[in-house]
Every structure is written in C-alpha cells, then in structure tokens.
Amino acid sequence: MKFLSLILAAVVTAGASLALTAQAGDRARADDVRQLRESGKILSAEDIIARARKIQPGQLVGLELEREAGRMVYEIKLIDTANKLHKLELDAASGELLSHREK
C-alpha cells in the first residue's frame, strides 16, 4: 500500500509540474507575476506554500495564482497523510486564508 501511495504521489506531482510549466510558458503572464512579486503586491510562492502547510500539513500537488473578484488569490492543493486532498485559497497580498475545502 505504501508503494502505491508513493507512485500516486509521484504521478500527481509530475502532473502538477507539467501544469505549472504550461502556465509558466505564457511569457506575458510570467512577467506579470514577477512584476507583482517584485513590487511587493503579492507574496512569494514559497511564503504562501509555507503558510498553507501551517494551516494544513501535506504534500504540495498544485499551485495556481488567479485573479478573483478583483484580487489576486493563490490556490494551493495538498494531500495529507490520509491521502485526502485539501484545496486552500489564500489572498496573494496578505496570505490570509480565504477558504479551505477537503475533497
């Protein structure tokens, strides 16, 4: 069972990496995100991941930055030790938890 969990985690992580690569390939988007980060308008992905893991420990399987209702929001997906998926949304500027759903 442990072996199956490791394979699942590797597949999910590889899928998340591919999704992030495809999004990062959009040069204008990557430049916009870099500019927002350098100007201090959003927190770094590393900071957001650390904050998310304090709220819900787990393996990172997804990270997206989106504009919702006029504000930038990080969507973080984590798998906990019981293999449950958690979706957290944090305000990109403040790091405030906006929602936490378990799937």
Note down, in words, how this protein is organized.
The structure is a single chain. β2 (71-79) and β3 form a beta hairpin. The protein has helices spanning 2-24, 27-38, 45-55, and strands spanning 59-68, 71-79, 85-91, 97-102. Mean pLDDT is 81; it is low at 1-22. It is built from 3 helices and 4 strands; from the N terminus they run αααββββ. 45% of the residues lie in helices and 31% in strands. The protein is α+β, with helices and mostly antiparallel strands. The protein has one domain (2-102): Nuclear Transport Factor 2, Chain: A (Roll). The radius of gyration is 14 Å and the shape is elongated. The chain has a 4-stranded antiparallel β-sheet with strand order 1-2-3-4.
Pick out its properties.
4-stranded antiparallel beta sheet, Nuclear Transport Factor 2, Chain: A, about 100 residues, alpha+beta, elongated
What is the number of domains? 1
Helix coverage percent? 40-55%
Q: Largest sheet, order of strands side by side? A: 1-2-3-4
CATH architecture: Roll
SS-derived structural category: alpha+beta
The whole-angstrom Rg is: 14 Å
Kindly estimate the percentage of residues that lie in beta strands according to DSSP.
25-35%
Helix-strand topology string = HHHEEEE
The parts where pLDDT drops under 50 for at least 5 residues are 1-22
Distance between the termini: 21 Å
Largest sheet: 4 strands, antiparallel
CATH fold-level name: Nuclear Transport Factor 2, Chain: A
| Nearest-integer average pLDDT | 81
| CATH uppermost class | Alpha Beta
Total number of β-strand segments? Answer: 4
Shape descriptor:
elongated
Number of helices: 3
